[in-house]
Structures are given as C-alpha cells and as structure tokens.
Amino acid sequence: MCESRAPLIRVLLVGCLTAALPAATPAQHLDSLLARMTLEEKLGQLHLPSANQRANREQLDLARRGLAGGFLNVHGREAARQAQQAALAARHKIPLLLGLDVIHGYRTTFPIPLAEASSFDPELVEAAARMAGREARAAGVNWTFAPMVDIARDPRWGRIAEGSGEDPYLGSVMAAARVRGFQEHVLATVKHFAAYGAAEAGRDYNTVDMSDRTLRDIYLPPFKAAVDAGVASVMTAFNDIGGVPASGSAWLTDTLLRREWGFDGFVVSDWTSVLELLQHGVAGSRAEAGRLALTAGVDMDMVSGIYLDSLAALVRANRIPLAVVDTAVKRILRAKVRLGLFTDPYREIPAPNANAARALARRMAHASIVLLKNEGNVLPLARSAQTIAVIGPLADNQLEPLGPWHAQGRRQDVVTVLAGIRAHVGTSAQVLHAAGCAIEDTATAGFAEAVAAARRAGVAIVVLGERHDMSGEAASRTSLGLPGVQQRLLEAVHATGTPVVLVLMNGRPLILEWAAERVPAILETWFLGVEAGSAIADVLFGTVNPSGRLPVTIPRTLGQIPLYYNHRNTGRPPSDSDKFTSKYIDVPVTPRYPFGYGLSYTTFAYRDLKLAAARLGQRDTLRASVTIANTGRREGTTVVQLYVRDEVASVTRPVRELKAFQRVTLRPGESRTVELRVAVADLAFWGPERRFVVEPGSFRLFVGPSSAEGLETRFEVR
Hints:
Low-confidence stretches: 1-25
CATH topology of the domain at 364-560: Rossmann fold
Structural class: alpha/beta
Mean pLDDT: 95
Helix content: 25-40%
Shape: globular
Radius of gyration: 26 Å
Number of strands: 27
C-alpha cells in the first residue's frame, strides 16, 4: 500500500494513483487516438449511463462498442472488472470511469458532512475522506461524486446535510481537505456548480436569484478552494441562476471555471440535468438541450443519453463544431490517464483494516458532536449506582444513524445509542429502554411504557430526530420541529421530573424552542454513522469531552429563516430602544444558537488579544495572538475563532466574517498563547468594479469561542 501524503497539483494525482504510470504515458498518444475514433465513439466517451451495481447486458454492449465513457453506480470488484473487460474489448480499448456517490464513507459510514464540519478539524476530515476513498477503490470504484460544497443558509433545504454549512471560509477549508483525502485513491467531483444551496424557499431543484457579489463572496469560494486543491471534476447544478440553468451556462463552466480559475479537469452534468434544460424552457428538443450543454462546456452527460443519441447529426451539420467534441473527449481521456487506467484498468488495492476504519469513524463522530446545553452540569453522567432510561424512536435504531447517501453502509454495522450505553456501563447500572413511539407516529400508545421507565430512572436519555431520508436530496421540509408525536413524548418524559438529556439525531438544524427552554441537557449529534452509539455514549459519560461547534446558525423560530451570522448590516440595525429598526415584534432577532457555538465539560477563558502589527500593507499577513486558559476541572478542546469586520467600504460588508480558526486542547489549569494568521489578501471582496479588492481602511477583529462573543481589537490596512 502506497502511503504518499504529498499535495495534489491540479488533477495530476500523486502517490498511489501515479505510481502505475509508465515513462511514456498514453497522454502522448491522445491526439492520435482521437484521430482514429469515429464521431460516435467520441460522443460515447461523453456518455455516462447508470447501472444497478452491476452493468446489464445492454450496458456492457455499449462498453464493448466504445459508446460509454464510464458507468455510474457500478461497484464491487467483480462488477467493476466485468465492466472494464467489456470496455477493453472495444476497438480502442479505452477503460471506464466508475463513479459512485461516496459522500461520507463507502462501507464504513462516517458522520454526514455537516456533522464533520462541526469538528472544525480539516485534518481529521481529510483522513475520513481518504479512508472512504480507499474503501471505494478497493471495491472497484475510481471516481466519487463528492465533495458537495454548496453553502446553505436555509435549513429547510434537505441537502444542507451534505455540505459544510453556511460559512464560505469553513466551507472552503473543508472542501480542500476532502479533495485531498479522496484523491489519494479516487477522482473527486466538487458539486453542485453553482449556488444550488440557495434554492428559493429551501425547495430542492428550485430557482436561484442573487447578486453577482453574493455569488462571488459567499457561494463560489468553496468551489475555488476545491479547484485550487486539484479536484479532478466538477458537477453542474440542477438550478438556474438568474434565469440561466447551470448546465447550460457558458459563463459558469467556460468563462469562470476554466478561463478565470484555470480548471483543467472535466465537467459532468448532474443526473439528467442536460435533459432538464427542456423543463427549464431554454431548449425545445433533446438535441438542442445537448447542444447548449456541450457548447457551454459540460463534457459528460450523466444518464440522459442525449450526447450519444442526438448530437452526431448536429456535428455533421456544423451546428456543433467538431473541435468542441474533441476538446471534451480529451478532457475525459486525460482524467483516465491521470488515474492510471490505461496502465492498469483493473488496479486493485487492499481494503483497509475494518477495525482501523471503525476507529477513525468513532474519532470523527466524537469531534462532530455539539453540546448545546448543559444546565446544572447534568452531563457527564456517572457510570454506576443509578438506573438509566433510554427512550425514543431513535434510541435503538440501526438504520437512521447512517444518514442520507450512505453508499454501502449497512444497518447491521451500526452501534445504536442503546447498545453504546449498555456497552459503556456494563453491569454497573441498570439500563431500561422504551421507544415510546415511531419517528412519524401519530399515536401515543407507547408513551405509558416510556413514562414508566423514566419514573424508575435517575436520568432519562431521550433520543429523537429525523429519519435518514428526511434530509438529503429531495427532502425539503417546511416544518423543522420533531416529526410525528416526538415532541409530545419529550414533554411527557420531562413531566415525570426525572432529569432529561435530549440527544438529537438529524441532518439539518431543528428548531426546538420548547426543549431549549426546558430540557437541561441537549446534544446535537447529527447522523454519526456506524459508530454513532459508541461515540454518543463516550460523550454522555465523559470519556470524551465534546468539542464540536455549529457550522450553521440555529434559529429560534421558523419565521427567522434565512438566518446566518455573516449578514450585512442595514441602515437601521436592530435596537431595543427604537421601534423603527430591523427586527421582529414577537421574537428576538438573535438566533437560539449562533454559528461556531458549542459547550464543553470544562470552561475556557480568553485574554490578552494582541496583534503583531496594527497597520498592515496589502501584501502583509495579519498575526493575532491570544492566550487561552482551561479554567475547569477536565481536559478539553476549544475552537479559537477569528472574525473580521470591514468598518467602511465601497459596498456594505458582513457584520463578521470567519477568517481563521484553530482547535486547542488544554489540561485543567493549563494556558497557552496561540497565533492565528490571516493574509491581508484574504480580506478581499467583490467590489463595485467587478473585481476582488482589499480597500484601505479600518477593520475590527474578534477572537472568541463563537461568532457571537469574544475579545475585540482593531487594525488598519494601508
């Protein structure tokens, strides 16, 4: 097993993936190969059909005729080998790309990406992606449709689960980490290009309308970070932006992505998004939809088959230049060269050790859990001398912790919360269990058993939330409370007087005002994957001190949406003393839990914020130091967060912007001075002259444990 950890340079993959390339690579022969291909064979390289794990006879026949550039959803060593054998029986013996949605694990399911972003730990996230890529490659997959890097400010949108939340800086750091991790073993695909997460009303596939400035400053930075990290492919989005569908936008895929950013990989459509140009109303026929997409720079058509069956006539009629087809084909072939497929199309690597994979999944789960509330220090729990009631429809559920898009994750591999707690306490405590209701029940017949268990117990751990498929694609919700009668179950258990610990399991922020006001302890665990129960038990009993931080803002009420920390100010900022300011008359304007927020079983003090220099030039780097002290009785980790605010600019600027963060672990009584650095160039924004600019002037700087608190100072850019 090759263990290279060298950085990626563009899409030239290092270490394991390039080790098999010969001295004279097939890249030298691409032009001659292209010259020998028929038009139909060229269009075949741009065709990506979907299979059901194993390609069927008709699909294998396409490969034997050289009319498929790859397959979607073929996986497993035998199925992958059979598909490649079919492709190598074709006239030009061009191997296949075999793609799969390996979003947060292949067989070993890691926490969903939103949960992983809660770790604020890019090295750990990179390691998880590397492990997922290795498992996938061992099963014949050589291309993943991840990472999804869409910024999401509306939790009604179900696919918020697949990304890193609302912040462009955090999103960029995580995008680059996942690209580096995946591409040690497989090609990565950054998606969905672009602004898919800004769908109106949080409704999946819906239209997007925004200013160029918001697009550039908020939604595009994670894509740029992925390109800079060397991502191999980019997937276009389903949505339109200002009336132009992303899969037919030459500005997005050619002008911006290739010419401005220098991307030299290939672009693939999302599932049938080329065909959907008809539904968007910008094409009147399949052929016209294909022409729009291909000439815009979409190299590969996923599933719809339009390039293969409808474009040859347009090329022969000179409605599509042959050079456009050739360029797209060369991009696909180059990706196959860089992956080493021409040298060894069957290349097999050993699967990672299953115990090592699960151990990493458990570490990732630990870092992803966010402690939202711990009134009266209910947590951590004592292991012995008490009876524990474990209640709720998700307490002993093996399916839902896998979350959406869990590839080959299997429910039998999942440790449930109940199993994790029982394993943790052994025989030292009595553990009672009652589901109380199903996830979407309307009946309350099971409440009596749950209430009885709570009354017998010293603490009630109530595990509530969503089904795994209530978030993810096509899973938008208009209500963000607990489904079914779960809220009523929580109230019934709380009414017993037994202390309650609420464990949330979900793929998006939930709005739980009743619980936030009344339940003493709340853990946000998201969907943590196969080690969910073990990791949650570790945190509940204090074996692990929670260190996760929110990558999204949690509103007080649904009516506050969209609510995000890095909003721009208004001419009338909220003021309690003035009615005629920007606020609500029925709830505070502030969130329930702000971006970057998370508690610990210990406490931290921040002091002595200092700048190495308070006046900086355009090419300088800001260096801020702060001393952190652990003032509690347990070892713990805080996430030091640095935010800036441009006080006066030519356009309105956000009230705060995250620009750096660092995880710091301290023993009780220990203190440490840490330094955070920000290049002045990274303070740039999209200016009125349609270019990025850092304007001279005064900036406020905040360093603290969340976006809503911390120490403050000022600096000036000359």
